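Problem 12. The chain below contains 132 residues. Write out its predicted structure in token notation.
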Amino acid sequence: MRLDPKTTVLLVIDLQNDTVGEKGAFASAGAAAFAKEHGVVEKMRMSGWQDTTLETLLRGLERDQILVTGAWTNMSIEHTARHGADAGYEVVVASDGTSTVSDEWQHAALNYAMNNVGKVATCAEIKSALGS
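Solution.
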């Protein structure tokens, strides 16, 4: 895998209180603990694409590679990655930069759902691919 720092963008998505906060709606399901264990922070919105100017910005900045990180691997991460791939971007999901409810959901999203969408790599592999 090779990533060009001049054409690659990092998206950190779906870090809302309900999915990552200790008092969030999904804390009792294990989401907050899983997020904390993986060093994940706060949320701006569910999808990087919906009702945003993301695609306009990416096209204007001539970015064609997207690194996706954040919370809800099996929902928001997967949704954002699929939309990006459909729009023609090369998508890489950071396996150890994402979070969900449990190891089972994480495994399903990264090892099954992402198979035909993009690449899955560790943060170390991504750093290496960026030439850092």
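Discussion. The beta strands are 8-13, 65-71, 90-99, 119-121. Students who got a different answer should revisit the alignment rule from Section 12.3.
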